[in-house]
Amino acid sequence: MPPRTIKFRAATVAAVLVLGTTLLAASPQAGATEPAPVTDYCQGQCADILPPGENGNATLVDILGNKAFGTHPKHSDDQLDRYNGLVAGQSGLTDQKLTDFFNDASFGVPKSQVESVTSPRDDVTITRDKATGVPHIKGTTRYGTEFGAGFAAGQDRLWLMDLFRHIGRGELTSFAGGALANQGLEQQFWPQAPYTEADLEAQVEYIKTHEGARGEQAMADAQAYVDGINAYRTKSKNGRYFPGEYVLTGKVDAITNVGEIQPFKLTDLISIASVVGGQFGGGGGGEVQAALSLLAAQQKYGVAEGTKVWESFRQREDPEAVLTIHDGTSFPYAGKPGKARGTALPDAGSVTAEPVIYDRTGSAGTDKKAPVKAPAPLKKAQGIYDDGVIPEDSLPGSGSGAQKRGMSNALLVSGKNTASGNPIAVFGPQTGYFAPQLMMLQELQGPGISARGVSFAGVGMYIQMGRGQDYAWSATSAGQDITDTYAIDLCEPDGSTPTKDSTHYVYHGACTAMETLEHTNSWKPTVADSTAKGSYRMQVRRTNYGIVTHRATVGGKPVAYTSLRTTYRHEADSIIGFQMLNDPSYVKDAASFQRAAGNIDYAFNWFYADSRTASYYNSGMNPVRAAGVDPALPVRAARAYEWQGYEPAANTAAYTPFAAHPHSSGQDYYISWNNKQAKGYATAGFGLSAVHRGDLLDDRVAKLVEEGGVTRASLTRAMAEAAVTDLRGEQLLPELLKVIRSEPVTDPGLNGAVQQLESWRASGSQRRESSPGSHTYTHADAVRIMDAWWPKLVEAEFKPGLGDDLYGALTVNVATDESPAASHGASGAHSGSAFQYGWWGFVDKDLRQVLGKPVKGPLARTYCGNGDAGSCRDALLATLKQAVAQPATELYPGDDNCKAGQQWCADSIVHRPLGGIGQKAIHWQNRPTYQQVVEFPAHR
């Protein structure tokens, strides 16, 4: 198709033409033979949305126009207002009004709505609709269909895919510049999945040789997809309508067109999969940090009492936690053993993190700038990447103090409780807000493939979340424990005494050398990134028990702690499950859906709805651990404590069987917001307790089900209402106020603050504009007070009793707060997602203990006021007084998007630009990035 651009002022166009960047529209090729249409059983009752817009590529002209005049390429921002509009439009929502806020997700494009048709080959067409520009790819051959998917991915996400393959390979700074955030990003991701090219090739071969005919087909599909990307890469480069970021980062000369966009290859897809899967589909790990907080508890209280205190905060199996499977069915996994074996706690004060960076030169480790002299027409785009191609801490789970792999929610109601008698689902992945999005929306129709939905850019051979002919599916991150930490004994090959710095370890009795993996990256300033010239070497040590993360001593002897996850060396094996989900001959009902989801190795909660059944399955390569091993803590690296059947060369082991994973069909309703899956399924980290953001959904959906007659609109309203609700206000403020109101509040100022909080709570504890566009919350003062009060009250409640060391260690395990305006949230400020990890459950249990209310799974001690209600009240009032006095300008400090004190703006969602196109801020919503609303009235 021709490049999607818009007209700019003549001066801008002329300036770019002087540089020789000719952006001429390529003529569409003749259309391919149209395959037979498929039957769409949703009959107009499927809808979806993905802001800000489908088009994620911007030419140099597009970028300069955006910087100079605020203009946007077509379809790059046309979903933003529709997505944002649900905040104000939820109250009067009806089924008929859903399409005011979502797009029709029917298969195909009516002739009157066709915007363009491209045929990159004779056996495939890419039809884009006028409303959204989404590619509808139809092929007469399997190869052509996948080639078309790759070609469309190139059209919509070429620069983004290039970024992510370099992030996965640990080469971001060499590719896009040495900005401090770029340094941090590759230092975060590459050590989690370090590979040689041979390792990546081996993973491709493993799928071909271990997954039968489906494995061979998957790699053939992936190759066709890569071929399509490369075809667009070549055409756009030759036609000079490639993404302008290649010019701004010095990859292609704007005048001569000299330079290269490197060809994509199959191993690039493995690299991209390692970033996506590791970020959203991992689980477990963090056992060293858990051990440190356990040691702090034992040091304060003694071993027995300290362990009891620590376990009450760890809450592996909190009986009050909200569950996805709430019918009482138990799925025991990763629980605390009766008598642990092999636990390897470090000696106090001995733990040091394994260095990753060596041999720094120039600006490495700094933010030193040395701007180049940019040609006049490019001045407006200079420095667009000075803060990194992906702003620091903006990927979900990458923020300081935040746990990983959050996001995404799902609400499903079975047909017996809906008005139509058919199941209804409102669900989607919550993957952060970027411009363009990490995912792209597409429809794929070809031999053995029939689906519409989203895929992460660069691995879009199949739809990963979306709908088929008569069913829809989605996922939330599950995070169950598929990563363990081993303590390997260090040794020296000559038999001398080892030290913490030794690079050999004992494996099955033999002193074995650690494998060294390394990358040397260098950079120099460009128009896009002014960071001064620099370089460094990244290095990790790999062992048969995983990647070295820390050094310590255990019982006085030196060890290295390693991280071993089941999906390492298997980054793309999940392709088989996605292939099945896209195959209409395979998925025909809830049972076949569950079998397909069972072939996905990453830790996800999968949800399904057709006209008859709502269903759920938890996927993941759950290792079968040796008896007595405690998965929450480091374990000694010895044969007796290894995963059962463990083979290090290919990183394979015995895994729990299909039936052992939490699964269900036909339950009255399902909710998921990264909460606990089911009874007995132990949590992999801290924070899944008595209060969780999943309660915001569960309470609302349970009420709808009790009333009966649920509709798409009413279920969407429940989601949308929860999306603007402050968890602390709804779930915890009643208990806080009950303690405070146990006696009259005599201070007029404090009494007024309490009344404001009570009024806010009575109206729903929402963070919502007083009117559309006012940029002022209805209860702005109450929201400000709660934002200021919460971190102060948590510290005053717990720190005196726990002590500085233990309190500090526990806040490393789980941050105390994650409000929308908190810069330490799951993906930084302006990220949308909020209230996943925090001390909500700890505060809830502790206050109920103070008030004498029943508590299941109580904390081992009562902390607020040392258990005295009056002293607790004094602490709460003292911190409330501090909160009332805290200026808004201090509470909401300014940033690049907001002035100091601007509350609404501090909360607002900002789509982080991954390329040269920026987007306006929108109202805060705690909501999936891509979202479907579906109700199938018919079935094959």
What does this structure look like?
The chain is of the alpha+beta class and 940 residues long. It contains 24 helices and 30 strands. The strands form five sheets. It has a ten-stranded mixed sheet with strand order 3-4-5-12-13-14-15-23-24-26, covered by helices on one side. α8 crosses α9 and α12 (287-301) packs across α20. The radius of gyration is 27 Å and the shape is globular.
How are the SSEs ordered, and which strands pair?
Blueprint: H1 10-18, E1 46-49, H2 60-69, H3 80-84, H4 86-89, E2 103-104, E3 114-121, E4 124-129, E5 135-139, H5 142-168, H6 172-176, H7 180-189, H8 197-210, H9 212-239, H10 245-248, H11 266-280, H12 287-301, H13 303-314, E6 330-333, E7 352-353, E8 357-362, E9 409-413, E10 424-428, E11 434-435, E12 439-446, E13 449-456, E14 465-467, E15 471-477, E16 483-491, E17 504-507, E18 510-513, E19 515-523, E20 534-543, E21 546-554, E22 557-565, H14 575-581, H15 590-597, E23 604-610, E24 614-619, E25 635-636, E26 663-665, E27 669-672, E28 679-681, H16 694-707, H17 712-723, H18 727-740, H19 748-762, H20 780-813, H21 840-851, H22 869-885, H23 888-891, H24 903-907, E29 912-913, E30 931-934
Parallel strand pairs: 5-12, 6-28, 11-29, 16-25
Antiparallel strand pairs: 1-2, 1-30, 3-4, 4-5, 7-21, 8-20, 9-10, 9-27, 10-30, 12-13, 13-14, 14-15, 15-23, 16-17, 16-22, 17-18, 19-20, 20-21, 21-22, 23-24, 24-26
